[in-house]
Amino acid sequence: MTTTNIAVKATQVHKAFGSLHVLKGVDLTVETGTVTVILGPSGSGKSTLLRLINQLETLTGGRIEVDGEMIGYKEVTRNGQTVLQTLDDKDIARQRAKLGMVFQKFNLFPHMTALENVMEAPVHVAHMPKDKARNEAIEELNRVGMGERLNYYPMQLSGGQQQRVAIARALAMHPDIMLFDEPTSALDPELVGEVLNVMRSLAQAGMTMICVTHEIGFAREVADQIVFMDGGVVVEKGGPEIIDNPKEPRFKDFLNHVL
Ligand code: ADP
Ligand code: MG
């Protein structure tokens, strides 16, 4: 058995929607237990990259490995040649279960309480016994500071509280890697901090995280790696220090606009 300290490795990833070439050869390496922050202007392909990693979209070129295993495909030998064959649904589900994802829109089930939202996938997808799922859900809700609101419905919660429930819901499936796609962009400014605090504590607990965010302060403080994308390519990457010392003009421009 091989163990790897590389959680996600994207190699020359391309993605086109029809004639629209959105990702044009993206390379990304994320080490286990680290936080990567992806920055970049709207339309640069950040969400598409996360959606590819989580197999919500399929690649048009290149490859992505999660925990050392190629996603979506397996290599098979046919007539002495190695070709890629699409994985079956069961293998794709197994691979996707390694990842938790949090979106800009919280997408909680409106007719379910916070607790029921968090229990839903463990019970109905992972077939966990209800008692165990309830206990774990309470634990996850406590972890995001929502232990006092177990029986509230989404509409009775603020945006920041709903997003924290959404994070607990993703954590309840015990992912190895968490993907965050602008988790605070839909929030009123005064609610951003409580969500970033939860993300910071997850990072401190050693979770592997890939975060698309415009929160530069969070990036500077929490990220191990910064990746700046523009026009479907990675323009600059490095440690958090590149935020204060950008080299590429496009990255400088971007920072001037968001800082
Ligand atoms: P970002 O998250 O950096 O703002 P996206 O990855 O959402 O960028 O989008 C990159 C480009 O791909 C945009 O031009 C967007 O309109 C386009 N795009 C994203 N998803 C689709 C889709 N499902 N079909 C067609 N075009 C898409
Ligand atoms: Mg996006």
- What is the percent of helical residues? 25-40%
Number of helices: 8
What's the order of the H and E elements?
Answer: EEEHEEEEHEHHHEHEHEEH
Percentage of residues in DSSP E strands: 25-35%
Looking across the biggest beta sheet, what order are the strands in?
8-9-10-3-11-12
Number of strands: 12
What does the overall shape look like?
globular
Mean pLDDT: 96
How far is the N terminus from the C terminus? Answer: 46 Å
Please tell me how large the radius of gyration is. Answer: 19 Å
Hetero groups = adenosine-5'-diphosphate, magnesium ion
Largest sheet: 6 strands, mixed
Q: Point out poorly predicted stretches.
A: none
- Structure class: alpha/beta
Secondary structure layout plus pairing:
Layout: E1 6-17, E2 20-31, E3 35-39, H1 46-53, E4 61-66, E5 69-70, E6 73-78, E7 81-86, H2 89-96, E8 99-102, H3 114-124, H4 130-143, H5 159-171, E9 177-181, H6 189-204, E10 208-212, H7 216-222, E11 225-230, E12 233-238, H8 249-258
Parallel strand pairs: 3-10, 3-11, 8-9, 9-10
Antiparallel strand pairs: 1-2, 1-4, 4-5, 6-7, 11-12
The chain binds adenosine-5'-diphosphate and magnesium ion.
The site of magnesium ion (MG) has 4 residues, from helix 1.
